[in-house]
Design goal:
single chain; 390 residues; Butyryl-CoA Dehydrogenase, subunit A, domain 3; 4-stranded antiparallel β-sheet; 12 helices
Length: 390
């Protein structure tokens, strides 16, 4: 890894500490449990808590570190180098509860629990017929005398069982004009026992090809009753709070992508120097050396773009186009680099005996979640050319 001019001594220490933690605590667990689709152990979650990784972005007055998106992504990249699921679970503290939706009383009550790893969440956004177009969600929340009644189906709700709450986005009103479908979407905080689905909610796990370590669910809400105070934020305006956090969410995904690619590169470098063919290490063959050089260059290009985007976020500069660029570039790069790494390992890379197949499978997902590559290209092209039809 190359040190950037943006990496001061404190940031280098944060990065290096996270890397040491990953190599010692995360990577061995991932190598043992991912091949058998095991879950992230509670012991490892406690170690993440002890490191302060659930409160990186939370203010110090709540017990958090009060750090920026830059530091958050430095840590995320290192954790993803070990297991992307672990780099993702820290977002269940740092990023799931949108601060703009909470009252001061709720922040004082809940944020210290988040930092302590005792209040981690699952986001329930997507639906069977709604993915990238989140403004079109159809799950309904109807007002009742004593609260709310939720009816509808949700999809891709990772950690629905292991979380302490589910943040549900549902429609409380319909824009009859059809011009502003994002209006009328509200957010609901559904508290639940850890290890179970909320009362009245049924579901089934989705059989994924990767992103192991936790379960991803399809959920059914059949006239599920919630109290009045389950609504958080202003009714019908939750989409704005959701959209406000997209830049950081995409930077977080870019960091995960870079970590996966770095893991693939490091494994490929080690293997190429150990594996011998025709009487010499395969690292001596020029085509392979050039492949490794291209891999390293692509990773560093993505990393430096990520540093720029994080700096923009932390200084309050608008960077929706650049956030889409780094999410697009890093995720596409990660699939390419991890695939090249698997190729370098040859047959060994196509087994669960080597971590590179995990990095490859997980890298493929980064092109889909937090907005597909196609959605990112649409955002970037709209920024360059204006929206189509205008």
């Amino acid at each position: 890894m190359t040190d950037s001019l943006l990496l001061n001594e404190e940031r280098q220490m944060i990065r290096d500490t996270a890397r040491d933690f990953t190599l010692k605590e995360v990577l061995p667990v991932a190598n043992r449990l991912d091949p058998e689709q095991g879950e992230i152990p509670l012991e490892l979650r406690q170690k993440l808590t002890d490191m302060g990784y659930f409160g990186i972005r939370l203010p110090e007055k709540y017990g958090g570190s009060g750090l920026g998106c830059f530091e958050y992504c430095l840590i995320t990249e290192q954790l993803a180098r070990g297991w992307m699921s672990v780099s993702s679970i820290i977002a269940r503290g740092n990023g799931t509860l949108t601060m703009d939706l909470l009252s001061d009383e709720q922040k004082n009550r809940l944020m210290p629990k988040v930092v302590a790893g005792e209040y981690l969440g699952a986001m329930s956004l997507s639906e069977p017929d709604t993915g990238s177009d989140l403004a079109s969600i159809s799950c309904r929340a109807e007002k009742t005398i004593d609260g709310w009644e939720i009816t509808g189906n949700k999809y891709w709700c990772t950690f629905a069982d292991g979380a302490d709450y589910i943040l549900l986005f549902a429609r409380t009103d319909v824009d009859k004009s059809g011009e502003k479908p994002h209006l009328g979407i509200s957010a609901f905080l559904i508290e639940k026992p850890r290890g179970k689905l909320p009362l009245g909610v049924s579901g089934s796990t989705i059989p994924k090809i990767g992103y192991f370590g936790w379960n991803t669910w399809e959920l059914a809400f059949d006239h599920v009753r919630l109290p009045h105070d389950a609504l958080i934020g202003e009714e019908g305006k939750a989409f704005y709070a959701l959209a406000k956090g997209l830049d950081e969410a995409r930077a977080h995904t870019a960091a995960r992508s870079i970590g996966l690619a770095q893991g693939g590169l490091e494994d490929a470098l080690a293997y190429a120097q150990e594996r011998k063919q025709f009487g010499k290490p395969i690292a001596a063959f020029q085509d392979l050396r050039f492949k490794l050089a291209r891999m390293a260059t692509d990773i560093e290009a993505a990393r430096q773009l990520l540093y720029y985007v994080c700096s923009c976020i932390d200084t309050g500069q608008r960077c929706d186009k650049e956030a889409s660029m780094v999410k697009y570039f890093a995720s596409e790069m990660a699939e390419r680099v991890t695939s090249d790494a698997l190729q370098i390992l040859g047959g060994a890379g196509y087994t669960k005996l080597c971590a590179v197949e995990r990095h490859w499978r997980d890298a493929r997902l980064t092109k889909i979640f937090e907005g597909t590559s196609e959605i990112q290209l649409r955002i970037i092209s709209d920024a360059l050319l204006g929206k189509e039809g205008r």
